[in-house]
């Protein structure tokens, strides 16, 4: 009897303690709870919130976004008691990307920085801003002019590789394109010629390691069990990512070593090391050269690679537009190398690339953390919430784009662009923390696309835009591959 009474007493104490904690939590967080409740969104469950929606294959995660089209430009998503606000109204996006309240990236980014360093991807604006200032000159118009001959040389080599592979379908084109962008990125961003064989099939080369690191980082994000440090340290995923990072860092270390051996006799005037070395606001005590290089090189390669793949797919899906691009290149450039003055005249080529990035934005997600309450019309976003922007939610939204799944380069004619909110198109983000290298990427893409289409016809087994599946990664992936093949033009 006494034992039974003791159990009752202990249970009563536990129950009262739990009830007191719940009441205190609800009372002290009542404003945040009420504000969160007023934000539209799908039904939530106690404790887990909406996290159950992530218990599916990553190829299906884009289906979650379709549900949010029914909401008025904003929708909530709860991971336990952590609020994520998905925003896809251009006015809201503009405010979030330009507000001092949302200048920092979420603490979740720390999972990235612990692996590839406190570089431009750092969650802290205080750390990333000096780096941006240090490397910004290398993306200036003057610097881009010096890169054009490099892009021409490498794109001609790339086109020759494609000619050797003409007619072959069973090729992993994402790897081939990644090797091209490793080549151009190392030459332009690092100021050093790293010899790369685009036809090489070594599994653990630099291109493979960069792509694999991005994939595994995403896998960790969406795998709840891998966010437990103990399980992460024991996982095969960590062992593989460590191996890829070691190879990645060894490549960068070799470049640094060779640069020192050159003893200042650099061939390139515009390179990342030079700008870091000469910028007084950059502290190497906080961030090393390698920590700056790794994310910059990884993003440059991955973003440009998937964009080129999707550009070639869309041109293959629309042979009439492909022929028009070919004719434009022949009329403007002929068989010569592309000059700086030719780039503005390749208008259709430019519009094709931009329309492709509307349908297939290379960055699948941008995120910001609120440091104070943020007001978006009648909605109040509590502090310490995560603001999430999925470009595809905006780019494929019929509210902002007529027939959004129709491929139409004329959407980017000057008169059409002038009538549209600029934040309805965000392939490289906007604001103080946008992608620094977007112009570098576009110029490179324009030159390589023009060079390839001038010399080759491109075909695909895909039948429509709707048929192309996308994987939910930090950078867009096509789970079924590019399904491309080429023919040499006569």
UniProtKB/TrEMBL annotation:
One of its GO terms (molecular function) is oxidoreductase activity, acting on paired donors, with incorporation or reduction of molecular oxygen. May be involved in the metabolism of insect hormones and in the breakdown of synthetic insecticides. One of its GO terms (cellular component) is endoplasmic reticulum membrane. It comes from Phyllotreta striolata (Striped flea beetle). Belongs to the cytochrome P450 family. Heme binds at residue 435. Its main location: endoplasmic reticulum. InterPro entries: Cyt_P450, Cyt_P450_CS, Cyt_P450_E_grp-IV, Cyt_P450_sf, Cytochrome_P450_Monoox. It is a peripheral membrane protein. The chain crosses the membrane at residues 9-28. Pfam families: p450. This is Cytochrome P450. It is found in: Endoplasmic reticulum membrane; Microsome membrane. Keywords: Endoplasmic reticulum, Heme, Iron, Membrane, Metal-binding, Microsome, Monooxygenase, Oxidoreductase, Transmembrane, Transmembrane helix. Its cofactor is heme.
């Amino acid at each position: 009897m006494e034992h039974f009474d003791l159990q009752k007493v202990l249970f009563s104490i536990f129950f009262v303690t739990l009830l007191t904690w719940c009441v205190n939590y609800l009372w002290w967080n009542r404003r945040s709870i009420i504000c969160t409740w007023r934000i539209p969104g799908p039904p939530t469950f106690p404790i887990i919130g909406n996290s159950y929606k992530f218990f599916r294959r990553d190829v299906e995660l884009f289906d979650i976004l379709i549900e949010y089209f029914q909401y008025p430009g904003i929708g909530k998503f709860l991971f336990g008691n952590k609020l994520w606000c998905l925003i896809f109204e251009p006015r809201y996006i503009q405010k979030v990307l330009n507000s001092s309240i949302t200048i920092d990236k979420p603490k979740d980014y720390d999972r990235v920085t612990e692996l590839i360093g406190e570089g431009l991807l750092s969650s802290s604006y205080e750390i990333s801003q000096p780096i941006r200032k240090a490397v910004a000159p290398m993306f200036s118009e003057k610097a881009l002019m010096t890169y054009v001959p490099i892009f021409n040389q490498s794109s001609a080599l790339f086109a020759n590789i494609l000619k050797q592979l003409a007619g072959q379908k069973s090729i992993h084109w994402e790897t081939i394109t990644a090797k091209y962008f490793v080549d151009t990125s190392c030459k332009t961003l690092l100021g050093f010629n790293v010899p790369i064989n685009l036809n090489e099939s070594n599994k653990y080369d630099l291109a493979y390691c960069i792509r694999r690191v991005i994939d595994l980082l995403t896998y960790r994000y969406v795998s709840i069990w891998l966010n437990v440090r103990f399980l992460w340290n024991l996982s095969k995923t960590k062992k593989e990512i460590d191996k890829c990072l070691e190879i990645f860092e060894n490549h960068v270390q070799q470049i640094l070593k060779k640069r020192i051996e050159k003893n200042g006799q650099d061939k390139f005037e515009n390179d990342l090391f030079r700008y870091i070395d000469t910028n007084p606001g950059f502290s190497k005590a906080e961030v090393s050269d390698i920590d700056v290089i790794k994310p910059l090189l990884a993003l440059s390669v991955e973003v440009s690679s998937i964009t080129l793949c999707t550009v070639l797919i869309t041109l293959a899906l629309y042979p009439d537009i492909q022929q028009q691009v070919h004719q434009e290149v022949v009329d403007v450039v002929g068989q010569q190398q592309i000059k700086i003055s030719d780039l503005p005249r390749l208008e259709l080529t430019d519009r094709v690339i931009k329309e492709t990035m509307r349908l297939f934005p290379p960055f699948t997600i941008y995120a910001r953390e609120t440091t104070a309450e943020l007001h978006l019309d009648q909605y109040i976003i509590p502090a310490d919430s995560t603001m999430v922007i999925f470009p595809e939610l905006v780019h494929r939204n019929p509210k902002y784009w007529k027939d959004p799944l129709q491929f139409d380069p004329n959407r980017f004619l000057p008169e059409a662009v002038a009538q549209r909110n600029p934040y309805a198109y965000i392939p490289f983000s906007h604001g103080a923390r946008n992608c620094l290298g977007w112009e570098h990427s576009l110029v490179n893409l324009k030159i390589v696309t023009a060079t390839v289409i001038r010399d080759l016809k491109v075909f695909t087994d895909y039948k429509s835009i709707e048929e192309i599946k996308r994987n939910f990664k930090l950078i867009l992936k096509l789970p079924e591959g590019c399904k491309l093949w080429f023919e040499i033009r006569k």
